[in-house]
Inverse folding.
C-alpha cells in the first residue's frame, strides 16, 4: 500500500538535497568567476606595466632581458592560476556530489549486490 506520509517525506528530502547542491554549485561557480576576473585584471595590469617599461628602454639587450623576465613571470603566474582553478573545480565537483553520497549509499545497500545479468538465448 502506498504511504503518502513516507512519500511526502522522501520528496521533501530529495528537494532539500537538490536545493543544497544547487546552492553550493552556484557559490562555487561564483568563486571561480571572481577568481578568473581578478586574475584577468592583474594579468592585464602586468602587461600594461611591462609595455610601459619597454617603451623607456634604450638598448636591445635590455629589451630582451625585460621580455624574458616578463614571459617567465607571466608563465609562472598562469601555471599558478591554472592550478588554483583546477583545485577550485575539483572542490566544486566534490561539494556538488556530497549531498548525494548518503542517498546513493543507502540505495546501493538496499539493493544489495549488483543485479544478475541474464543472457538471452539467441
Amino acid at each position: 500500500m502506498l504511504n503518502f506520509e513516507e512519500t511526502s517525506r522522501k520528496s521533501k528530502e530529495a528537494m532539500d538535497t537538490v536545493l543544497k547542491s544547487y546552492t553550493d554549485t552556484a557559490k562555487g561557480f561564483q568563486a571561480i568567476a571572481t577568481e578568473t576576473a581578478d586574475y584577468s585584471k592583474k594579468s592585464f595590469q602586468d602587461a600594461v606595466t611591462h609595455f610601459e617599461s619597454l617603451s623607456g628602454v634604450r638598448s636591445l639587450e635590455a629589451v630582451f632581458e625585460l621580455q624574458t623576465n616578463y614571459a617567465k613571470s607571466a608563465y609562472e603566474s598562469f601555471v599558478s592560476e591554472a592550478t588554483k582553478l583546477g583545485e577550485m573545480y575539483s572542490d566544486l565537483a566534490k561539494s556538488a556530489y556530497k549531498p548525494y553520497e548518503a542517498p546513493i549509499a543507502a540505495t546501493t545497500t538496499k539493493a544489495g549486490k549488483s543485479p544478475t545479468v541474464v543472457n538471452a538465448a539467441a
In short: The helical segments are 4-55, 60-111. The two ends are 39 Å apart (CA to CA). DSSP finds two helices and no strands in the chain.
